[in-house]
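Subject: for your reference before the review

Hello V.,

The reviewers asked for a structural picture of the protein, and I figured it would be easier to keep everything in one thread rather than splitting it across files. Below is the amino acid sequence we used in the manuscript, unchanged from the supplementary table.
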Amino acid sequence: MAAAGTGPGPLAGVRVVELAGIGPGPFAGMLLADLGADVVRVDRPGGQPLGIDPARDVTGRNKRSVVIDLKAPEGPGTVLGLAERADVLIEGWRPGVAERLGVGPGPCLTRNPRLVYGRMTGWGQDGPLAASAGHDIGYTAVTGALGMIGPAGGPPAIPANLLGDYAGGSLYLVVGVLAALHHARAEGGSGQVVDAAVVDGTSHLTAMIHGMLAAGAWQDRRGANLLDGGCPFYGVYETADGGWMAVGALERPFYEEFARLLGLDERTAAGRDDPARWDGLREAVAARFRTRTRQEWTEVFDGTDACVAPVLSLREAPAHPHLAARGTYTEYAGAVQPAPAPRFSTTPGALRRPPAVPGADAAEVARDWDLPALTPGTRQEGSR
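And here is what came back from the structure prediction:
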């Protein structure tokens, strides 16, 4: 397992204000912090309803926290003081909330015309549903992404909140923020608002599928296509001990290696080229996988080009030999967690700080950002 590392990260020197929220906003803040940005999270009195101890919340790593009561008279001004000194501000509230609290794009950009103001929502800043509550499962549902996942004849499978919140939300917010920061720092550049919506990003992720659909190479139903489990050489199969193996032997050379190692006879393996025979091929593949355990099949396919891998649990993944050799996971602050990604040859990211505890870093941030109003003992540090 990788050591935490001490690299500065390519965003060293970039200051980010994160107005605390839940879901994709904190993950985006973590990614920026992993890349070296100085991320200060503004927590509210009483904290966030995350349901876990903040000291164990991995998305709070590499950040610092201050507590500011935005409903107190001096609260908005203190946040504007942070925005004035920052390069980026990100918030994930419903449209209009930041404006009502006095920390919307207008006053922030007035104080700091080069500020990148990143907004993370599910539905976006406008549209009929903009003011409505929602979660990952609803956002992925209306974009068609959720409907693609799962077996034919069965319900859509829920991919945790990875597809909407984090892939369609957090990563698009970070891409937008970095692009806007590049513009703001260019000669004659200026700050701007980045409107990152989970529905927009998730829809964008389906671009290739839409192209295949338009070309007649994708059927608009679950479990009927090349990449959704519809073909028998791209799917998951149960093993003798109740484990699972993932098969992705799409290209012919890889499929031939797969069929040889699995022990399919030549006639059965030839069913690859005839979709009318796929059901029979699927049954044959499933029957073969049921003859050995997951570990036994892992040993059969290990190091080959058959494109077969064991389906591991979250606790098992860090011990996988390849991931362990690369240091894909690390143990830091008493928790096993993914190491920073991606990797940089000159300015690697690192885990520099454990998850931020609300309000614990006020004095440090007050000193480093030259903002005395954050000093412990001021009204912002406690409840009203």
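For the response letter, the relevant points are probably these. The longest strand covers residues 38-43. The longest helix spans residues 162-185.

Happy to draft the paragraph if you're swamped.

O.
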